Amino acid sequence: MQTGRVIAGVVACVGLGAGAQAQTTLGSFIFDDNKFGDTLTESDGGSHSSGNWLNTTNANPGNPGYLTGAHFETGVANMGAGTIDYTIGYASGIPNMTGDDMGIVVARYSTDNVEIRFSTDGVTFGPWTFLGSGTAVDSGEDRTYYYGGGGPYPARLWVHPIDLSDYGIGAGGIMAIGIRTGGGSGELDLIRAAGFIPSPSTVALVGAAGLLAGRRRRHG
Ligand SMILES: [Ca+2]
Ligand SMILES: [Ca+2]
To answer: Does the residue 24 lie in any domain?
Structure first.
């Protein structure tokens, strides 16, 4: 499903009524600034990221800055053939809304498969699930990253849209996601795993409820 991609005009209109929601766009994807992750757990204790970080400025972002923060300026390159995994925790969680809930943003220096797993309590995780490179969508946006102090090198950013319903997650959503390279390649270049703003259908429902409440007030 592609409902995480929202027409900006609709959001702008609804945003005025619902109160401004800080958001960051990547192509046609609109992310909620409160759903970019707060903690980062590295299965190798950080030895890989210390030499394989990505950053649009020439500086090591450190943990959790490699993979958190409401922007797409940092990441971790060449994540190994499934031997290292990164867990991003969300202080307020990512709810399972109507349609797509979050996007996994990768830099396509190479085209790689991904494996993901979710935790609804931040402690216990479900099984790893394979996400083929073919599920990613071209954002149309490029970034130029320094890689472990070298470069900078340009790359196109692609987004894997995720509907948590496809993974058996309830409306309460998730508190954390685990990510690693899927399949044989060891070259996944991960930028972010972050939540979208509510999709148009969700916003429309909220808007309709608001209108109804307004009518009740006027007639009450
Ligand atoms: Ca959903
Ligand atoms: Ca790579």
So the answer is: yes
Query: Tens digits of per-residue pLDDT, 131-166?
Result: 999 999 999 999 999 999 999 999 999 999 999 999
- Residue 196 C-alpha to ligand 1 middle, in angstroms? 10
- Cα(118)–Cα(32) distance, integer angstroms: 19
Q: Residue 2 domain-assigned?
A: no
Nearest bound ligand to CA 99?
1
The domain that holds 83 is classified in CATH as 2.60.120
Q: Which domain holds residue 171?
A: 8-219
What is the number of the ligand closest to the CA of 195?
1
Tally of domains within the chain = 1
The neighbouring-strand residues paired with 23 are 32
Ion ligand 2 — residues with CB < 5 Å: 78, 109-110, 187, 189
**How many Cβ atoms are within 10 Å of 204's Cβ, its own excluded?**
14
pTM: 0.84
